[in-house]
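Recap from last week: sequence in, structure out.
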Amino acid sequence: MRSRRTTVGAALSSAVGLILLAGGCSDTASAVKPASSAHTGTARPVVLSLATPMGASDEFRAFLQNVRTLSHDKIQISAEFNAHHEEGPDFEEQLLLDVQSGRVDLAALGSRVFDIRRAPALGALTAPLLINSFDAEEKVLGAPVAEHMIREVDGGGLTGVGLLPGSLRRPFGARTPLLGPEDYKGRTIGIQESKVADSTVRALGAKPQWFGAGSPVADFDGFEQQLVSVNGSRYDEAGMIGTANVVLWPRPIALVANTKAFERLSEDQRRLLRKAARQAVHGAGADLREQERSALESLCARGQKFAAASPAQLTALRKAVQPVYDQLSRDRRTKEYLDTITTLVRGVPPEPPLSCKD
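Predicted structure tokens:
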């Protein structure tokens, strides 16, 4: 799927009451400073370009809505969807290079890409089996710790803007479901680019293999993915069985900016973008849960199967991934974030098991 760019008043969809303003790609990605119009004497809006590997109806639309509302349309965002979407397993890394180079001003992408080498402390957000519900994710990203974590990406031409809740990633297994550690041993499991995911799959005795967004999964013995993507990419046609009650990790969305473009904005404009991100966290869980419910309905109609792990298997999974926590905790800041997140999610119920039964 090719990238698509649409200039919007910080908006994505008429479904949420937003209006498309214009179309096409601009020749420059740098932020446009306000300027007086010769005809009206009014200040022109600031236009920022944003690229994302996601589609136009995905999770960061609330952020764009908030930018429009808070700025009274004085900040507009030209959004390029599906950027690098089918260009190999490092598609999010390629998007970060676009931001660093100034090809685009902003990017919305999975926080997992930073745990590779840029900001390893963000790996705490995707520690295995820790954040296992939309409510837990919203609670963590709505807490002060999230504002500290996004600043971990600062440097090298990047500036963190905010963290948004994203979909929950679940395991799917070929022929037999991935329920306990014994089901992973010797298998090749497809994952998206992430050091934490890589370490987790290895800790479970399987071989991880990175794959690009929308790439085929039929040759794997299993894979991890959110229901919306399984449905949209029709991964159910590979015949794999989903695990009904295991959430491996969430896919939080990191909003990052090209540092030079961000610094060209006024202090009030920079503060507005960060406020728009913070406000987008509240209520995100309900929206994400509805997206998952809709995807599950479609998958069930096509015959997708799910199986539940037993309490003993869930306990064994947690024990098996302890080496990943040990590895993350070697870094002091990462350990501090892990401890804070663990405290925040304690007592938050997991998502109910998936089921195709009414």
